[in-house]
Write a structure and sequence with these properties.
The complex is a heterotrimer of chains A (299), B (235) and C (400). Chain A has one domain: ABC transporter involved in vitamin B12 uptake, BtuC (Orthogonal Bundle), CATH 1.10.3470. Chain A is built from eleven helices and two strands; from the N terminus they run ααααββααααααα. Chain B contains ten helices and ten strands. A six-stranded mixed β-sheet of chain B has the order 6-7-8-3-9-10, sandwiched between helices. In chain B, helix 3 packs parallel to helix 6. The chains are: A mainly alpha (299), B alpha/beta (235), C mainly alpha (400). Chains in contact: A-B, A-C.
């Protein structure tokens, strides 16, 4: 038998990747917003959380998993779009603390309202695939059908974002409005609509992440389900450099693996401390992020 | 044809344009001249809707442009090549052109071919990032990006800024031949009065936001007072 | 600024003093303490009013601020003698919180940055205080408070060094991560921090013997200890405010404001950006630690759940509502904090909500989060800013 696949190291690496892809997705959604609007969206975990509650409310009407997922995506599109139109639009060009404060306030309101409507008790979501780990020669293997589904979904989302931005006209316009909003408008690009679209897109990336995270057997869906993942996602995005989508994903995945090793070899509590230490050290060495070529600065 | 009447634009208490009226005729080059801070750039930005006028009207043929959004004005066929060119350095030459072609329903590959024919150097560098281009090449790219959408009006903001005299002359020649072969209306903002007056049909001289001369280019060029006091051209 | 009431101040001061003397004599239990109390109060009122005259303010700003602080302290302490224990306890926590708010207000007002981790920095101070007091029972309170402040400053330096080198919300994100990590840090070092149950102070803080009689002067059923602790908290807050007012007005404070408004210009005139930002962050962390340590003293214990991320958000809400970047905003925020629990439970009863229900338990978050958004959108400088613009409008309208 092959003991390697069930060895401690492989188990840790695969377990780390499982968490890492969710950090990577959150980091990616943060970078999408940051690049297009120069705002670090502190409600980037709470907005999708709310959308997930809304979407899975369909469960009470005897809908299955997939209709609920579709409903979540629609809710995310709405929440992302409305947030940009009603809230964020008033913050462009304001001092940088204004959007931070408003989005933190939005995070608090969303979590409080979600807890008021749906209570803080964890709610378990159905899952289309089994979370029971496969066995190899009587030993538990680090993967389950659900984890494979999680990897596949994450890869599809990342690839879809990459294709959208690299190869489509819409992506070209999104990038142009982020890089040079005024020039883009002079070329007839409807920058305002594209900013709304950017927020909608990033909330969709967020809601897919939240659905994956909440289907986890242990945690379930709670109003604060994304708090910790948001923190790791931010750390990953900051290490990767807030300007770089690829950097954010890579940093997120690596952070997940490191966290798993820390959990296994040190203890659970040390995880966020080590992650914070990594962030501090990496910012000291490369202030603009490990994956950013030069110190880009927004004025 | 662009018709501007009684245009006043202010930044807070400072009036950048005071009661400016001018007509840019179809198929002609109208030069807008004046020193730094005369309000030339503000004029173009107001036409494009980047700046809201306090009073006055701006019309494209019979259509009012005031209170319209910048992107809608651009879609009406007004190409604006901003000061400092505004090419997107992170994009390749071709991506910049694709962006320019997007709003106009033109055939992209034919549009690209036309621009590469007009500016062969861009064709050679189509896959390069715009940040890597020289100043003259960037100006060509900025113009090509505006032209690919087949605009009826072209607003050029200081195209000669920072370019060598030879490159400037070449650029002016291109603008002139564009006008001759099509019905393009050009408003050419320039500090470099000599080269602008050489190709322009009509010239407007601005001084601290006011029109001090509005005549055919040859008459403006011949006016000693204008040359000396407003255009800084001393024999 | 020409102040019309200059000549009117002396009679006002005398009137206030007479009323205060009568109130003190009538309401205190023994006449000796009543006399002591009213004499101290009268002197402070007189000094404060005379020394805060506009002409004096210009020539001796520091002395004038000291006089104003003394006056404020005296009024506040005087009032505590007539309040019941639970109100005084609220005031004490409000005073501790106002110190934290002052630090955050300074950070934002001086450098345009924001911290989402001041709750955790409070925790650093609170636990430093409790740990030290448990290991060195003989250290005087003031020294222990200072040790807590130093701990807060050191942690601030550690976190501020990398984050302040960057523009943008890195500091905010990083302090958020610190706030989230803090409870885990506490559990990791549970042998020091007492784990989930937290720590008790070895002895309750009581008034020194020579002051004991003074604190008995309060109206019953006032307990001596609560009154004493409230007044200690108020005095510490007063000192903190005094230092901060001077810092705001100093050269350092001015250069910090220059950074906030235009960092390129600031660098041109020779202000070191990273150093100034780090200093502002350290000051803010140290103030948070002082507030936390004071809270430990008031509660006589410290427990880990207090210092969760939610506290950091509460701190942010309070200073934004009070007026971020201002000194009075911190004071207003402290008062709001002192009575917020009462107000929210009042709202719950008035609206007939089920106190055990989901909505009632989330009311705090909904109200504070909502106010945070609304304030930032419609009155970015909070109550202080709104009051100032109202004042200017009134002055502009009235003739003369």
């Amino acid at each position: 038998m092959d003991p390697f696949l069930t060895s401690r190291i492989v188990t840790d690496v695969l377990g780390g990747l499982t968490n890492g892809v969710t950090y990577g997705l959150v980091a990616l959604s943060l970078v999408l917003i940051w690049r297009s609007t120069g705002i670090l969206n502190f409600a980037q975990g709470a907005m999708p959380m709310f959308a997930t509650y809304v979407g899975f409310a369909l469960l009470s009407y005897h809908f299955g998993y997939w209709p609920c997922v579709v409903a979540c995506v629609i809710a995310a599109l709405l929440i992302g779009g409305l947030t940009e139109r009603l809230l964020v639009r008033r913050l462009y060009g304001k001092p940088e603390i204004n959007p931070i404060v408003v989005m933190v306030g939005f995070l608090i309101v969303l979590e409080a309202v979600a807890a008021a409507i749906w209570s803080s008790t964890p709610r378990s979501l159905p899952s289309p695939f089994s979370s029971i780990h496969w066995q190899l020669a009587g030993k538990p293997f680090a993967l389950s059908p659900f984890i494979v589904y999680e990897f596949a979904t994450a890869l599809v989302v990342m690839a879809a974002v990459a294709v959208l931005f690299r190869f489509t006209n819409l992506g070209l316009q999104l990038r142009a409005s982020a890089l040079a909003p005024e020039v883009s408008r002079l070329l007839g690009v409807r920058v305002g609509r594209l900013l709304t679209l950017g927020w909608m897109l990033s909330t969709v990336v967020g809601v897919i992440t939240t659905i994956l995270v909440s289907a986890n057997f242990f945690s379930g869906l709670t109003p604060t389900v994304m708090d910790g993942i948001f923190a790791y996602g931010f750390i990953a995005a900051a290490i990767g450099g807030l300007e770089s989508p690829v950097g954010a994903i890579v940093a997120g995945v690596l952070l997940g693996v490191v966290n798993q090793f820390v959990t296994d070899y040190v203890n659970q509590n040390a995880v966020i401390i080590i992650a914070l230490a990594i962030l501090i050290v990496s910012l000291m060495i490369r202030p603009s992020g490990v994956f950013t070529k030069s110190a880009l600065r927004r004025v | 044809m662009i018709t501007i009447e009684g245009l006043t634009v202010s930044f807070g208490a400072v009036q950048a344009l005071r009661n400016v009226s001018l007509v840019a005729e179809t198929g002609k080059i109208t030069a807008v001249l004046g020193a730094n801070g005369a309000g030339k750039t503000t004029l173009l930005r107001t036409i494009s809707g980047l700046k809201e006028p306090k009073t006055g009207t701006i019309r494209l043929d019979d259509q009012s442009l005031v209170h319209k959004r910048t992107e809608d004005i651009a879609r009406l066929g007004i190409g604006h090549v901003p000061e400092g060119r505004g090419v997107i350095g992170e994009f390749t030459v071709e991506e910049n052109l694709r962006l320019g072609a997007m709003m106009a329903k033109v055939n992209l590959s034919r549009g690209l071919d036309e621009q590469y024919e007009l500016f062969p150097v861009l064709g050679e560098r189509r896959k390069q990032h715009a940040a890597k281009l020289s100043g003259g090449e960037r100006q060509m790219l900025a113009m090509a990006r505006a032209l690919i959408a087949k605009p009826s009006v072209l607003l050029l903001d200081e195209p000669s800024l920072g370019l060598a005299p030879l490159v400037t002359a070449q650029l002016m020649h291109t603008i002139q031949s564009l006008c001759e072969t099509s019905d393009l209306t050009v408003i050419l903002v320039e500090q470099n009065a000599t080269s602008a007056l050489r190709i322009a049909h009509h010239a407007v001289v601005l001084h601290v936001g006011k029109v001090v001369a509005n005549d055919t280019a040859s008459l403006v060029a011949a006016d000693e007072n204008l040359r000396q006091y407003y255009l800084g051209l001393v024999e | 600024m020409k102040f019309a009431g200059t000549r009117r101040r002396v009679p006002i001061a005398m009137g206030v003093a007479v009323v205060a003397t009568v109130v003190a004599l009538v309401s205190t239990t023994t006449s000796r303490e009543g006399v002591a109390l009213s004499v101290a109060f009268d002197l402070a009122v007189a000094c404060g009013l005379i020394l805060s005259l506009p002409s004096f303010k210009l020539s001796h700003p520091v002395v004038s601020r000291a006089a104003l602080t003394l006056l404020g302290l005296d009024v506040a302490i005087f009032i505590t003698f007539f309040l019941n224990s639970s109100t005084n306890f609220n005031l004490a926590t409000g005073a501790a919180m106002s110190i934290v708010l002052l630090g955050l207000s300074f950070l934002t007002g001086a450098s345009g940055q924001i911290s989402l981790g001041n709750g955790a920095f409070m925790g650093v101070g609170a636990f430093a205080m409790a740990i030290w007091a448990n290991h060195h029972t003989t250290t005087p309170i003031v020294a222990t408070l200072l040790i807590a402040v130093v701990c807060g400053a050191l942690v601030g330096l550690l976190l501020g060094l990398p984050a302040t080198r960057l523009r943008g919300p890195y500091l905010a994100g990083m302090t958020l991560a610190f706030a989230v990590a803090f409870t885990f840090i506490l559990s990791t070092f549970s042998s020091w921090t007492g784990g989930d149950s937290g720590l008790q102070l070895p002895t309750a803080a009581i008034a020194p013997r020579w002051l004991d009689g003074f604190f008995h002067a309060g109206t019953p059923p006032l307990t001596t200890t609560t009154l004493y602790l409230t007044d200690v908290a108020i005095i510490v807050a007063g000192v903190a405010f005094f230092f901060m007012a001077n810092l705001f007005a100093s050269r350092t404070g001015r250069s910090m404001r220059l950074i906030r408004d235009n960092d390129v210009a600031a660098e041109l005139v020779g202000v070191s950006l990273p150093r100034t930002r780090v200093v502002a962050f350290i000051v803010s962390s140290a103030y948070a630690a002082l507030g936390g340590a004071l809270l430990t003293l008031i509660d006589n214990s410290v427990s880990p759940p207090t210092y969760s991320f939610a506290l950091s958000v509460t701190i942010l809400s309070l200073i934004v509502i009070g007026g971020i970047g201002t000194i009075s905003g911190a004071l207003i925020g402290g008062v709001i904090y002192a009575f917020s629990t009462n107000v929210i439970s009042w709202i719950t009863t008035q609206t007939g909500l089920n106190p055990q229900g989901n909505l009632a338990s989330q009311l705090n978050g909904i109200i504070f989060g909502g106010l945070l958004i609304l304030t930032m959108l419609f009155a970015p400088f909070g109550i202080t800013g709104a009051a100032r613009s109202l004042w200017h409008r009134l002055r502009a309208r009235s003739p003369g």
